[in-house]
């Protein structure tokens, strides 16, 4: 049996939370720790809202009794971190984690832990997880063990400079979380909204593990699953000096996830981690019973633990996912310019299969769902090398998908030399920087721009050494341009790309005047530039980070109706040009002007 429990007991958690939760009366609450009112997603209306904080040695000396008295009910303690420099892979422990855990528990706070990761590989992520597990051995934790995945926000950063794909970063996260879960802990991942959306596949993670979202705003628009929301780094809590991170916990039914099991078509019964109450390990069928439900078919199975005798008030819910087995026998069969075909062995219980192809030439990953023991993934980049995996997918009674473990990698290459993926990676009012997908084995790329007078595409430049960006200069502001790109390979006739159309940005708008001649009204005028229209903003805050409004206009003179009188307001404007897809391409914001409203 595992020596470390995933949950102490429902009675202990209940005691800690007895005065903590407050069921929502509305979707807005004002935080005593920031003085700001926050709007909560309606999906949490039936959950309890519980305040907590996360800490590291940077927070210094903490009086946890005062912290608890001030309304904080749980803390996440940083156990350690991986060095963020490129020089090497170093595992380091936080010098205060032992003191923080001991003192927080003594004060009656619920305690979880986290590790600040810079893992670039699955192997490194597992090393981080094992370093954390070694450090917390013997501690009775009542909150999740967290994988903190984020950039160091420096070009010299270990993870920042690695330029990993979503697939690789998701694999790293799952490696850490699986290791923690298999050790008997409730595993969770922490990341910012941007990190989840741009660098991970959060749905693949939230299927099995808890999500802790970092989003410093009064209202998060994140649509994915999350249970915790870190909404500020500037909270003020009694019992400690300086600012601290504050979190919302949307607490629902007290459940603990204990991993995944492979679908067999037969009932699956698995043990839970040891249950400890007041330092005493309880005995199954003597002190408590386990009842299983939904434990045959693919989906989320449930285990209900109920206490017996003097532990009759004890109740805990465990869940585990039943998923299809790992796909085996994956073979690459054939390819076209934009597709790869494969076969594999059929998996019991699989309704479909997800093929993932990751380009080795470009930072691009493609996914496609197919049916049966063979399939083709389309929409790929021509002339690219790929590593390909297949994953079996089953569904539960509500048609929710559950994925099995990914197969081993196989390699494949698309044919063809036609450039794709052309985009404007940078726009200015007199220049455009074009980028495109690389073709494997190309010597150079030729760039052509359409000349309307000559009615032809004319050569304007060439790149070498596998460079897939080119800056076009000497252009006019807010104007449309058309381009083509062609790869060059020895002894190969390469096809030109499809036409790529885009526009330059408008010039920066200059202000003329801003005045307030009547109550709660601003008259704002600015100089005309070549553009489709203008977007203007007004706010009571100079930086426009919050409490601002935005409108569009075709005119260079507008009247703004403000919400308050006798208040200083700030205004600014920028021009926009519609591109070929009717998307707005913006110029720079004007200088900010201020005015005292009557």
β-strand number: 41
Report the biggest beta sheet as strand number plus sense, adding barrel if it closes: 8 strands, mixed, barrel
Approximate helicity band: 10-25%
> In the CATH scheme, what's the topology name of the largest domain?
TIM Barrel
| C-alpha termini separation | 73 Å
Features:
598 residues, mainly beta, TIM Barrel, Immunoglobulin-like, 5 domains, eight-stranded mixed barrel, five-stranded antiparallel sheet, 11% helix, disordered N terminus
Please write out the topology.
Blueprint: H1 10-17, E1 22-23, E2 28-30, E3 37-39, E4 48-55, H2 64-69, E5 74-82, E6 91-93, H3 97-106, E7 110-117, H4 122-136, E8 145-149, H5 166-182, E9 187-192, H6 193-199, H7 202-206, E10 210-214, E11 228-235, E12 244-251, E13 255-262, E14 276-277, E15 280-281, E16 288-293, E17 299-307, E18 315-323, E19 331-335, E20 340-343, E21 352-359, E22 365-370, E23 374-377, E24 385-395, E25 401-403, E26 410-413, E27 423-427, E28 432-435, E29 444-451, E30 456-464, E31 469-472, E32 480-488, E33 500-503, E34 511-515, E35 521-526, E36 533-539, E37 548-553, E38 557-561, E39 568-578, E40 584-586, E41 593-596
Parallel strand pairs: 4-5, 5-7, 7-8, 8-9, 9-10, 10-11, 13-18
Antiparallel strand pairs: 1-4, 2-3, 4-12, 5-6, 11-12, 14-15, 16-17, 17-18, 19-20, 20-23, 21-22, 21-24, 24-25, 24-26, 27-28, 28-31, 29-30, 29-32, 32-33, 34-35, 35-38, 36-37, 36-39, 39-40, 39-41
């Amino acid at each position: 049996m595992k020596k470390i429990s995933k949950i102490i007991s429902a009675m202990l958690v209940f005691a800690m939370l007895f005065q903590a939760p407050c069921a929502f009366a509305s979707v807005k609450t004002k935080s005593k720790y920031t003085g700001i009112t926050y709007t909560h997603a309606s999906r949490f209306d039936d959950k309890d809202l519980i305040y907590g904080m996360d800490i590291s040695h940077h927070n210094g000396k903490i009086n946890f009794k005062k912290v608890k008295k001030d309304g904080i009910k749980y803390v996440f303690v940083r156990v350690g971190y991986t060095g963020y420099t490129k020089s090497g892979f170093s595992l380091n422990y936080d010098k205060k984690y032992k003191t923080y855990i001991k003192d927080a528990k003594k004060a009656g706070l619920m305690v979880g832990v986290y590790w600040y990761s810079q893992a670039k590989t699955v192997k490194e992520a597992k090393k981080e997880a094992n370093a954390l597990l070694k450090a917390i051995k013997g501690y009775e934790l009542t909150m999740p063990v967290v994988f903190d995945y984020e950039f160091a926000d420096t070009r010299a950063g270990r993870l920042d400079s690695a330029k990993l794909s979503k697939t690789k970063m998701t694999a790293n996260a799952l490696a850490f979380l699986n290791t923690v879960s298999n050790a008997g802990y409730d595993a969770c991942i922490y990341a910012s909204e941007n990190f989840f959306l741009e660098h991970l596949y959060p749905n693949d993670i939230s299927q099995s593990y808890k999500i802790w979202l970092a989003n410093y705003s009064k209202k998060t628009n994140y649509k994915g699953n999350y249970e915790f929301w870190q909404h500020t780094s500037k909270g003020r809590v009694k019992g400690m000096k300086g600012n601290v991170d504050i979190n919302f916990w949307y607490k629902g039914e007290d459940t603990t996830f204990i991993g995944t099991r492979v679908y067999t078509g037969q009932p699956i019964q698995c043990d839970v981690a040891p249950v400890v109450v007041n330092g005493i390990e309880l005995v199954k069928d003597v002190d408590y019973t386990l009842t299983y439900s939904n434990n045959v078919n693919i989906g989320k199975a449930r285990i209900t633990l109920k206490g017996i005798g003097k532990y009759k008030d004890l109740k805990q819910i465990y869940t585990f996912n039943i998923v299809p087995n790992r796909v085996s026998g994956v073979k690459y069969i054939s390819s076209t310019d934009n597709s790869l075909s494969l076969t594999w062995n059929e998996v019991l219980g699989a309704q479909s299969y997800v093929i993932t192809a990751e380009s080795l030439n470009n930072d691009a990953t493609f996914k496609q769902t197919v049916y049966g023991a063979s399939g083709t993934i389309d929409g790929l980049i021509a002339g690219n090398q790929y590593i390909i995996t297949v994953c079996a997918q089953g569904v539960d009674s509500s048609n929710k998908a559950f994925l099995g473990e990914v197969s081993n990698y196989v390699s494949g290459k698309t044919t063809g030399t036609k450039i794709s993926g052309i985009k404007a990676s940078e726009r200015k009012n007199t220049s455009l920087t074009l980028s495109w997908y690389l073709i494997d084995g190309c010597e150079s790329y030729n760039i052509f721009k359409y000349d309307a007078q000559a009615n032809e595409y004319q050569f304007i430049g060439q790149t070498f050494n596998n460079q897939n960006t080119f800056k076009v200069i000497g252009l006019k502001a807010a104007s449309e341009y058309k381009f083509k790109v062609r790869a060059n390979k020895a002894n190969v006739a390469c096809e030109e790309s499809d036409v790529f159309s885009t526009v330059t940005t408008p010039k920066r708008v200059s202000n003329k005047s801003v005045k307030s001649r009547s109550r709660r009204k601003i008259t704002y005028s600015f100089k005309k530039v070549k553009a489709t229209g203008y977007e203007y903003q007004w706010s009571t805050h100079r930086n426009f980070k919050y409490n601002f409004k935005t409108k569009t206009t075709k005119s260079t003179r507008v009247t703004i109706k403000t919400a308050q009188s006798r208040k200083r307001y700030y205004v600014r404007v920028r021009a926009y040009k519609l591109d070929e897809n009717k998307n707005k391409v913006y110029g720079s914001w004007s200088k900010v002007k201020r005015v005292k409203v009557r």
